[in-house]
Amino acid sequence: MSDRYCVFGNPIGHSKSPAIHAAFAAQCRQDLSYEAILAAPDGFADAVRAFIAAGGRGANVTVPFKEQAWRLATRLSPRAELAGAVNTLVFDHSGMFGDNTDGAGLLRDLTVNLGCRIAGQRVLLLGAGGAARGVLGPLLDSRPGVMVIANRRVARAGDLAQGFAGAASLRACGYPELAGQSFDLVINATSASLVGELPPLPAGLFAPASLAYDLMYGECETLFLAFARNQGAARLADGLGMLVEQAAEAFHLWRGLRPDSAPVIAMLRATAVSAR
Ligand code: NDP
C-alpha cells in the first residue's frame, strides 16, 4: 500500500496541496498518496488520530488548525517552537513531530525564485497572525537592516516582537505610525486580501526598486498588490511560490528528497490562467 499523507483544514476544498504533492511524488518517483481532509472545527485532534490509526505517515495543517497542531505535537522543531504554529506533522514510532515550513518557503521564494536580497534592507511585515509568526524568524535570520511589524491590533504586533527580543533591528507598531517611512520589501501577511480588504496603509511606503509580496494567491490581483502597483512598487509577487516552496520543504522532511519546485509553480500558474 502507498504511504499516506494529507492536509487538514476547514475549509479545504480549494487546497492546491494534493496537486502539488502528486507532482512532487511523480517527479521523485515516490509511491505515496496525498488527500485533503476536512476536519470539524472542534475535531482536529480526533481527525489526526484517526488518520494515524489508518496508517498516515505525515500531514500538512492549514487554517484554522496550525496552533492546535502546535499543541498536539509531541516534539517540535526549534522554528515551530518559535512560531507557535505547526504546518507539517511527521508521524512515527516516537510520536508526532511538528515543524513549520512557512518561513523557509517564503524565504526560498523571495531569495531563490525572485532574486530578492534581504540583508541590510528595510523590510515591513504586515500582520501578526499565524503566518506572520511563521515567517518572522527566518526573515530576521536573513539580517534585514530594519524590520518593522505593523498590525491592526498593535498589542499583537508587540507580543510577536517580544518573542524575538534579541533582534536589534525589530520594531512593532500600528498602521498610522508607518506614515513617512518607506521600505524595500513589504510583505502582506494579513488575511485582509482573503475578504477583499486592504490594511489602512499610508501613501509612500514603497521605496524605488521595492518588492511588494502578498502571501495570499488567487486568480485575480489582490487589493494589496493593486495598491502597491499604484504606489510605484517596482515588483509584485503573490504567495503561490511560497505555497509550493513550503510544500517542497515538507516533502523533504517526509521523504528525504528535495523536489524541483519551478515546474510545479509553472504548472499551477498555467492552470490558473486557463481557468480564467
Ligand atoms: P490569521 O487569522 O492568523 O491572522 C490574520 C492577520 O490579518 C491578523 O494580523 C489580523 O489583524 C490581520 N487582518 C485581518 N483582516 C485585516 C484587515 N482588514 N486589515 C488589516 N489587518 C487585517 O491568518 P494567517 O496568519 O494564518 O494567514 C494570513 C494570510 O496568509 C492568509 O491570507 C493566508 O491565506 C496566507 N498564507 C499563505 C501561505 C502561503 O503559502 N502562500 C501560508 C500561510 C498563510 P488583527 O490581529 O488586528 O486581527
UniProtKB/TrEMBL annotation:
Binding site for NADP(+): 127-131, 215, 239
Superkingdom to which the source organism belongs: Bacteria
Entries under CDD domains matching the protein: NAD_bind_Shikimate_DH (cd01065)
Keyword entries, A-Z: Amino-acid biosynthesis, Aromatic amino acid biosynthesis, NADP, Oxidoreductase
GO biological process, one term: chorismate biosynthetic process
Domain Shikimate dehydrogenase substrate binding N-terminal: 7-89
EC number: 1.1.1.25
Residue spans crossing the bilayer: none
Domain Quinate/shikimate 5-dehydrogenase/glutamyl-tRNA reductase: 117-193
GO molecular function list: NADP binding; shikimate 3-dehydrogenase (NADP+) activity
Reaction(s) this enzyme catalyzes, per UniProt: shikimate + NADP(+) = 3-dehydroshikimate + NADPH + H(+)
Pfam families assigned to the protein according to its UniProt record, in alphabetical order: SDH_C, Shikimate_DH, Shikimate_dh_N
Record-level GO cellular component terms: cytosol
Pathway: Metabolic intermediate biosynthesis; chorismate biosynthesis; chorismate from D-erythrose 4-phosphate and phosphoenolpyruvate: step 4/7
Residues where shikimate binds: 15-17, 62, 87, 102, 217, 246
UniProt domain SDH C-terminal: residue ranges: 239-265
Active-site residues from the entry: 66 (proton acceptor)
Subunit organization: Homodimer.
Family: Belongs to the shikimate dehydrogenase family.
Function statement: Involved in the biosynthesis of the chorismate, which leads to the biosynthesis of aromatic amino acids. Catalyzes the reversible NADPH linked reduction of 3-dehydroshikimate (DHSA) to yield shikimate (SA).
Name assigned to this protein: Shikimate dehydrogenase (NADP(+))
Species per Swiss-Prot/TrEMBL record: Candidatus Accumulibacter affinis
Gene: aroE
